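Comment thread on ticket #2218

A.B. wrote:
> Attaching the input chain for the structure job we discussed in standup.
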Amino acid sequence: MGKRKIRKIISYFVVLLFIVTVAGCQSVKKAFYINNESASVRQMRVNTREAKLYRNLKTKAIVSVTLLDKKLMDKYFQAYRNSESPSTNHLKKGLINETIFFVRFYSPEEGFQNLGKKSPWQVSFISTGRLFYADNIIRIKNVDWRYLFGQDSWSRGYIITFDTGMKSGTVEISSVLGKLKFHFLPIATS
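C.D. wrote:
> Ran it. Output below, let me know if you need it in another format.
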């Protein structure tokens, strides 16, 4: 065998060893996180809805909406007792009389990348035939909620409150680009 052939075999072996190592680590990491998922994260999955908005085969928005009810937030505050921030303090006060959602929002469209006062997006909540517009939209820092919601670098996190204590209904986020709807059925309390 020539030196070239030996180098080629060694390079194939190194690449194969690298692929096996990476694949093995990912499986172990995934198994660890699945088995150690906290009660707050499991409850968060139950309370979360996701949707994508497409127009002319292009992505216009990717949004997830999580209903922040007392059961979910009690579990979160138990798990992360030391996570005090302005947004968590606001939540503790509003959980009883308001309907509060965490929204993770992404849009690649110029001028459509934010929710809030000067945004082209309108956020509303429809429950028992009544329409409520968002009373408060607070953009939050990713570090405030990374433990519970897994923020990424592309989307922006918002706490959105409605002046109603109703916990079932439909959240609508709409603009000239289109409309996204997130349905929340009554959540059984236990």
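A.B. wrote:
> Thanks. Noting for the ticket: Residues 27-35 have pLDDT under 50 and may be disordered.
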